[in-house]
Design a protein that fits this description.
By secondary structure, the protein is of the alpha/beta class. The chain is built from 14 helices and 21 strands. It binds cytidine-5'-monophosphate.
């Protein structure tokens, strides 16, 4: 389960920090990508050089690099991570997490991370058993943080008792199990269409649009992370195929129609995110069209509406469509929902700063037969998660 997963490893100032080296190594051996954030005290226990070498990534400790002013963005680290593992976690860090104190990069990252946070406590037994620590751990647990068991045994102080950090091998197993439990779409097959289609005019020119495919690719990635078998029918894009996704490249609207009809046969759901050309040239010149008159006319004919065609044959399968409207958004989207026999429409807004083509953020609303839900401006990866949540609800 750890193959390709992004693990953000937070290290705090505990003697157990030496085990973070082995932990990092084991995570990498299991196929995960690891980035490390350390508290300033953690550096006293294990060096950033060790962790940078093992993780193959630079270490983040301060809010910025004092030598060149480079900002370490706790937001982007939180966004990157599929899991934020704080191991070892001291009583001090646990208390600060419980109360939302944000006086170092590890803590600000905790406050901004949207992924699962996992804490492996490591401290002396008296500190561990203290009511204050236990209350803080209970608070974090209530908030959904996974608290790993602190086994009983010999402690660095020479005392015996609870408070040891869980062994790295067991931590890796626990993380693996967390990812397994997140496989909420295991057994489902989903087709996602994404990117822009290309309609040839002649061997040199074409008609296309500004779609980059970012939204569709983020959705495909998120669905695959949740265990779905994902096929991505992709038009023009510069993006890399997400981990675990099968990609079928197409060019024109007609190509996309044919590939989509074929792929949808074996699918339980389709997410129609592609920006498909509505019209295509009636004739495609076989040689480059010469420049001659002042004006030039291309006759266009309508392409097939893939979502509409799939909607006709979907049966009990689910289809999520997208709509990009510049006026009368709600009414038009609702009309599209009905006409194309879709289960939900994701309505894109072009009105908001940061939403639409090429941006890494998006502002959308979900339109269903009986309700409308408006989301704030969010990173496309987060919008993809909300869409995946909705797809889960359509199924179950
Ligand atoms: O009608 P409109 O193009 O606004 O509908 C948008 C939705 O329909 C999107 O989900 C888009 O992917 C899909 N669509 C399609 N085939 C077309 C045109 C749009 O699947 N030819």
């Amino acid at each position: 389960m750890l193959q390709g997963k992004h693990i953000l490893l937070g290290i705090t100032g505990s003697i157990a920090a030496y085990k973070a080296a082995m932990l990092c190594r084991l995570l990498r051996v299991a196929g995960a990508e690891v980035k490390v954030v350390m508290t300033p005290t953690a550096k006293e226990f294990i060096t950033p050089v060790t962790m940078a070498t093992l993780s193959k990534n630079p270490i983040a400790v301060e809010f910025y690099n004092p030598e060149n002013g480079d900002w370490h963005s706790h937001i982007s680290m939180g966004e990157w991570a599929d899991c934020y593992l704080i191991a070892p976690a001291t009583a001090n860090t646990i208390a600060k997490m419980a109360y939302g104190i944000a006086d170092n990069l590890l803590l600000t990252t905790y406050l901004s991370a949207r992924c699962q946070t996992v804490v492996a406590p490591a401290m002396d037994c008296d500190m561990f058993c203290h009511e204050a620590t236990q209350e803080n751990l209970a608070k974090l647990r209530e908030r959904g943080v996974v608290i790993l068991e602190s086994p009983e045994g010999e402690l660095a102080s020479g005392l015996m008792g609870k408070g040891r950090m869980m062994e790295p091998e067991q931590i890796v197993e626990a993380i693996d199990n967390i990812f397994k439990a997140e496989q909420t779409l295991a057994g489902k097959r989903v087709m996602v269409t994404a990117g822009a289609t290309i309609e040839a005019i002649d061997p040199v020119r074409y008609i296309s649009n500004h779609s980059t495919g970012k939204m569709g690719y983020a959705i495909a990635e998120e669905l695959a992370k949740r265990g779905a078998e994902v096929v991505l029918v992709s038009g023009k894009t510069a993006l890399q195929t997400p981990q675990g996704v099968r990609r079928v490249d197409v060019c024109s609207a007609e190509d996309m129609y044919e590939a989509s009809v074929e792929e949808f046969e074996a699918c339980d759901c389709a997410v129609m995110c592609a920006a498909v050309a509505d019209y295509t040239p009636v004739e495609v010149a076989t040689t480059k069209i010469k420049k001659s008159d002042d004006s030039f006319t291309i006759e266009l004919r309508k392409t097939k509406d893939i979502a509409f065609e799939l909607g006709k044959v979907k049966g009990s399968r689910k289809i999520v469509g997208f709509a990009l409207e510049t006026d009368n958004e709600q009414v038009n989207a609702e009309e599209k929902l009905r006409k194309k026999n879709l289960d939900m429409i994701v309505l894109n807004s072009l009105r908001d700063e940061g939403a639409g083509f090429g941006y890494d953020t998006n502002k959308v609303s979900f339109i269903e037969a009986s309700k409308r839900e408006e989301l704030p401006l969010l990173p496309k990866s987060e919008v993809a998660k909300r869409i995946a949540d909705k797809i889960e609800k359509l199924f179950f």
